[in-house]
């Protein structure tokens, strides 16, 4: 995966496939123009690499020239095609073959045909390395094309995303993965785990609870579990480096997830920063942080009730619960500002029936 500006792109067409396609077009044109001297006209900027490789593959008499048109801004065709560099003036009575990097909707092509319609060329043909048959309006015949591609945004081999990526030797496509990554935020007992169970079904997300991961490791008496135990037993936070590493490993175990619910993570600013940095390396980001709000007295009652069933020692002792709240107030609460500054913080009333609260959360998610 590579990054250009704010977007991520993944490999799509290899250098070898491109070179073979260029060679195929050159061979076909050579066959059709035996004994003639055609003029190849490259359409700038995108076609410069294709033109160069095409000419290397076309070792017969020919001339070359360029026109410059432009219709893309960002990821979508604007429909505005400007002529920035006009036709060569020696084309009267000649066979002209346009060399395009890609034929998309056909708007640029229409403009090209219009340009040539005012000239007295003997013959006018179109060769395009890439061709999006699904979206092409079909107005003119494409005489030669290299590789037919689906309607995806591609970069590389002359093609750009806002001017970056033209120098890539292979073609990449936009990584279109639509993920939802949520942070469930709130004090112990706020209902993060309960709500995550519903949301993960509803939105097909992977639920990662650092508390559950630690408890799993404790139960299995792993090295990580032994390390976390002393902190968890007192209601203290486990050191950041341990928690961050564990979280990252768990995300990496799920490369095909359509999104994550982070529950109980991040709990410190260092964890939030590490999460952002880590997700960015994967082309991912947090979409929203949703806080479940409830007051301390209600939470203490909930946790003591839960402690009776779950057997969690940190839920059975009011002092430990209060210590967890202190940890939250000191270390976790500042994250509200962190996510507010990114415009990602949402607050939901966490008191009421479970399904009512799920609906409140759903409303926030639907509006993202
Ligand atoms: P929880 O199940 O989320 O209430 O977490 C239970 C305990 O696990 C916490 O009191 C901490 O000791 C530890 N823990 C869970 N998540 C984290 C985290 N993100 N950072 C540090 N410690 C954590």
Strand and helix order = EEHEHEEEHEEEEEHEHHHEHEHHHEH
How many helices? The count is: 12
Q: What quaternary form is this?
A: single chain
Which small molecules are bound? adenosine monophosphate
CATH architecture classification name of the largest domain? 3-Layer(aba) Sandwich
- The CATH superfamily of the largest domain is identified as P-loop containing nucleotide triphosphate hydrolases
Taken as a percent bin, the fraction of beta residues is: 25-35%
Overall tally of domains: 2
* Helical content band: 40-55%
Distance between the first and last residues' Cα: 26 Å
Main sheet record: 6 strands, mixed
| Cα shape | elongated
List keywords for this structure.
five-stranded parallel beta sheet, binds adenosine monophosphate, 25% strand, single chain, Rossmann fold, alpha/beta, 368 residues
Describe the structure.
There is one protein chain. With 368 residues, the protein is an alpha/beta fold. The protein folds into two domains: 2-174, Rossmann fold; 182-366, Rossmann fold (3-Layer(aba) Sandwich), CATH 3.40.50.300. The protein contains twelve helices and 15 strands. It has a six-stranded mixed β-sheet, sandwiched between helices. The longest helix has 18 residues, at 15-32. The model has no long low-confidence stretch (mean pLDDT 92). Adenosine monophosphate (AMP) binds next to helix 5 and helix 6.
What's this, in brief?
With 368 residues, this protein is an alpha/beta fold. 40% of the residues lie in helices and 25% in strands.
């Amino acid at each position: 995966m590579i990054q250009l500006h704010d977007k991520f792109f993944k490999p799509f067409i290899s250098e070898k496939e491109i070179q073979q396609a260029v060679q195929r077009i050159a061979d076909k044109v050579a066959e059709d123009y035996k004994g003639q001297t055609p003029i190849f006209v490259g359409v700038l900027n995108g076609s410069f690499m294709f033109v160069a490789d095409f000419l290397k593959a076309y070792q017969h008499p020919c001339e070359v020239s360029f026109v410059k048109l432009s219709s893309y801004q960002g990821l979508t065709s604007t429909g505005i095609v400007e002529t920035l560099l006009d036709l060569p003036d020696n084309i009267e009575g000649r066979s002209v073959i346009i060399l395009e990097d890609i034929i998309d909707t056909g708007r640029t092509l229409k403009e090209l045909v219009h340009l040539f319609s005012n000239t007295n060329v003997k013959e006018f043909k179109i060769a395009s390395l890439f061709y999006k048959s699904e979206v092409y309006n079909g107005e003119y015949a494409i005489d030669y094309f290299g590789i037919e591609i689906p309607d995806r945004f591609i970069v590389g081999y002359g093609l750009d995303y806002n001017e970056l990526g033209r120098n890539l030797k292979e073609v990449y496509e936009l990584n279109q993965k639509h993920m939802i990554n949520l942070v469930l935020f709130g004090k112990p007992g706020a209902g993060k785990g309960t709500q995550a169970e519903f949301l993960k079904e509803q939105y097909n997300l992977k639920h990662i609870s650092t508390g559950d991961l630690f408890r799993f490791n404790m139960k299995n008496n792993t090295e990580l579990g032994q390390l976390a135990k002393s902190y968890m037993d007192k209601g203290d936070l486990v050191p950041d480096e341990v928690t961050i590493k564990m979280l990252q490993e768990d995300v990496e175990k799920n490369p095909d997830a359509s999104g994550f619910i982070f529950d109980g993570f991040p709990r410190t600013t260092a964890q939030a920063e590490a999460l952002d940095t880590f997700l960015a390396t994967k082309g991912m980001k947090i979409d929203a942080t949703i806080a479940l709000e409830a007051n301390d007295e209600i939470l203490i009652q909930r946790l003591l009730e839960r402690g009776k069933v779950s057997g969690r020692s940190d839920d059975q002792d009011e002092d430990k619960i209060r210590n967890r709240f202190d940890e939250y107030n000191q270390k976790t609460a500042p994250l509200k500002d962190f996510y507010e500054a990114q415009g990602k913080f949402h607050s939901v009333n966490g008191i009421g029936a479970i399904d009512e609260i799920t609906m409140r959360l759903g409303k926030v998610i639907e509006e993202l």
